[in-house]
């Protein structure tokens, strides 16, 4: 049974439809790259999975159970972890407080997050607004891990970061997949990086899937991907 299935999903905001009749499936421990130009529905797809859009049709199944009408909190408790593009760090809390506020029972606790991101241990008493962009992204991922999810939804995790930090975060995401067995859905403008970190990939345009297949195959045919994501 797949970990996550989407059948003919239609969703958006108010009267606006952004995701239109979209279907996909993701198995346990698998990685999916979601590619496309700005404004084609990538973030809306992620927000639909966590229950933050208007559901207009179709079904979202989690391990075979229809969760289409479940609220966002219930979906998080099932194991859907969201790392937003904006990071949403609490500026008036320390690094450690930002982590503790999201804690749920499971294998990931402070010690394990600090082991994954030693820099957060070094900055644990720093306030959330006193961190660099890279440190904030580490904190955003670490805080989501503290909820002990089964899948990580990562929206533009490398945006605006220095190449050395991107390399560090790519290595961390790869480790979470290979060694920790996390499933991932990765939205990223850096198509080649996203494909290298994933097993399968889809390309969206106007809320629909226009290309899909094994990530390695799309990486070999990157020109086809580029025609859909180039501005």
Structure, described:
The protein has 231 residues and is of the alpha/beta class. It has one domain (32-40, 73-229): 3-Layer(aba) Sandwich (Rossmann fold), CATH 3.40.50.300. Helices cover 35% and strands 28% of the residues. It contains ten helices and ten strands. It has helices at residues 42-49, 72-78, 95-100, 110-116, 118-122, 133-145, 163-178, 191-196, 215-220, 222-229, and strands at 4-13, 16-26, 31-35, 54-62, 65-66, 80-83, 151-155, 183-187, 200-205, 208-214. A six-stranded mixed sheet has the order 6-7-8-3-9-10, with helices on both faces. A four-stranded antiparallel sheet has the order 2-1-4-5, covered by helices on one side. A hairpin with a 2-residue loop joins strand 9 and strand 10. The longest helix is centred in the C-terminal third of the chain and has 16 residues, at 163-178. The mean pLDDT is 96.
Could you give a short description of this structure?
The chain has 231 residues and is an alpha/beta fold. The chain is 35% helix and 28% strand.
CATH architecture designation: 3-Layer(aba) Sandwich
Question: What's the structural domain tally?
Answer: 1
**β-strand number:** 10
Q: Main sheet?
A: 6 strands, mixed
Taking Cα atoms only, what radius of gyration do you get, to the nearest Å? Answer: 17 Å
Tell me the helix content: 25-40%
Alpha plus pi helix count: 10
CATH class: Alpha Beta
Shape: globular
Q: What number is the mean pLDDT?
A: 96
By secondary-structure content and strand pairing, the structural class works out as alpha/beta
Model regions low in confidence, pLDDT < 50 over at least 5 residues: none
CATH superfamily: P-loop containing nucleotide triphosphate hydrolases
| β-strand amount | 25-35%
CATH topology category name: Rossmann fold
Strand order in the largest sheet: 6-7-8-3-9-10
Order of helices and strands: EEEHEEHEHHHHEHEHEEHH
* Distance between the ends: 38 Å
